[in-house]
Amino acid sequence: MTFLTLLLQAAPADYTQFLFPIAIAAVVYFFMIRPQQKRSADTKKFRQALAKGARIVTIGGLHGLVIELTDETVVVEVDRGVKLRFDRSAIAREVGTKAVDAAV
Hints:
Elements (H helix, E strand, L loop, with lengths): L1 H8 L9 H30 L6 E4 L4 E7 L3 E7 L2 E6 L3 E6 L8
Antiparallel strand pairs: 1-2, 1-5, 2-3, 3-4
């Protein structure tokens, strides 16, 4: 019975007290979570769109030319006759498009 008495004596609910936590959650979502999801999706799309002849940089900073692709791996030529196999997830960015240059 005392619990019911306490509930009946409680002040009416003030919904503005919930406004601040909701605003904080919205700020965190729009300034932290959403941009990270977009970057992740863009990176995945980039790695799937890799093609032979692309000049790339790995996450370790190694520059090279893509010469062979599979679903999981990429073979990169870093010097004449020097070929290295990497996972697609190790490719950080593309530095040039469709290298036809024989210098590499």
